[in-house]
Amino acid sequence: MRDRIYAMAATTLWLACAAGPAVHAAAPPPPRDYDHFDVCKAVPGEVFEKALGATLTEVRPFFDKSFARCVYLLKPTAGGVTGYALWIQPAEDFAELRKYIDDPVTAVDGLGDNAYLFRDSGDGRYKLNVLKRGDLMFQVTAGNEADVRRLAAAVWAALAGSSR
Q1: Which pLDDT tens digits describe the chain residue by residue (164 residues)?
Q2: How far apart are the first and last CA of the chain?
Q3: Angle CA(91)–CA(108)–CA(145) in degrees, nearest 5?
Q4: How far apart are CA 15 and CA 28, in angstroms?
Q5: Which of 148, 163, 144, 31 is nearest to 87 (CA)?
């Protein structure tokens, strides 16, 4: 009996050692430093030019502790809108921001890990919030729904393969 117990203990020990070191899940990346995160470089103006078929005239970065933003100015298009904003902030803000939107919200399938669209009654602009789970969320704004959808898809493509 004692020999059986020793054999079982030895087998258990051998199996534990043979399994190799424990594999741990990758640690989450450190928080992004929004004071120094340049959205205009992360998503260059060419992304907006291509999505809208317009010519970029200027980009204006803005930095804060909890978000970063870039304003893209383009030559006027047929719609007359020349300014577009892209905000990037922590992924945790995605659900939190939705709580404060009083306007009708539409879920957008097939974009990012989650996305929703609304027209801000305060400024009349269309805004599309997109989640890149575990990394960031972004909001792109435009004067009409077609443009904001095109821009959000282009921004997602630019950010989807990027790492911090």
Answers
A1: 555 544 444 444 444 445 555 555 566 667 788 989 999 999 999 999 999 999 999 999 999 999 999 999 998 766 666 899 999 999 999 999 999 999 999 999 999 999 999 999 999 999 999 999 989 999 999 999 999 999 999 999 999 866 55
A2: 59
A3: 105
A4: 30
A5: 148
> Which token pair is 38?
């340049």
User: Tokens at residue 57, please?
Assistant: 């005239």
What are the structural domains, with CATH classification, of the chain? 39-160 (3.40.1000)
134 contacts: CB under 8 Å, gap ≥ 6:
28, 29, 91
Helix, strand, coil share (%) of the chain residues, nearest 5: 30, 25, 40
Pairwise CA distance, residues 157 & 16, whole Å: 44
Phi (first) and psi of residue 105, to 5 degrees: -115, 135
Write the burial class of residue 143 (CB in 10 Å: 0-12 exposed, 13-18 middle, 19+ buried). Answer: middle
Q: Cβ(72)–Cβ(86) under 8 Å? A: yes
